[in-house]
Amino acid sequence: MTTTTATASKNASVPQNARDGQALAATPGEHRQTDRPADQPIRERGRTAIGDVVVVKVAGMAAREIPGVHDMGGGLSRTLGVVRDRVPGGRPNVGRGVKVEVGERQAAIDLELVVEYGVAITDVAQDVRENVVVAVERITGLEVVEVNISINDVHLPEDDNEAPVDSRVE
């Protein structure tokens, strides 16, 4: 099967003398195409602003994907998170333990993690850093200049087995 392409069909909307390299004079009330925003490259037609909350959520989700990360946030924020998660209709806060600074082209991210007992903390931190950088740069297009990680706690296996405190009332 042979395909032929007619060059005239590619420029069919442009008058013949403009295709030959001659500029057309605009008549009164008519705008030349080069004066229109449509002649600008698509990438230059406006700006895109990425909100801090977007970067917070992307970074939080990416950090939680790594094996060995038990939870995120400091002690108080985790306690409040447990209460919030138990409220009917409440959703988990994926941004807990994430702080960001977002500029026009760059982002800096600070993470607070709780890791599982027995994992190599430096390996988990490196995996989290890599996953966060890749996810934020891919999804938002921002350059991640740094990801600072603070390990706030280690989750012990017996922490899950704590007996519930008996209530004095029924």
Give a written overview of the molecule.
- Strands 1, 2, 3 and 4 form a four-stranded mixed beta sheet that branches.
- By secondary structure, this protein is an alpha+beta fold.
- Helix 3 packs across helix 5 (121-140).
- Mean pLDDT is 78; it is low at 1-24.
- The radius of gyration is 28 Å and the shape is elongated.
- The relative contact order is 0.14.
- The protein has helices at residues 7-10, 16-19, 52-64, 75-86, 121-140, and strands at residues 69-72, 98-102, 106-116, 143-155.
- It contains five helices and four strands, in the order αααβαββαβ.
Rg from alpha-carbon coordinates: 28 Å
Structural class: alpha+beta
Give the overall shape.
Answer: elongated
Count of helical segments?
5
Largest sheet: 4 strands, mixed
Question: Key features?
Answer:
disordered N terminus; 31% helix; 170 residues; 4 strands; four-stranded mixed β-sheet; 19% strand; 5 helices; alpha+beta
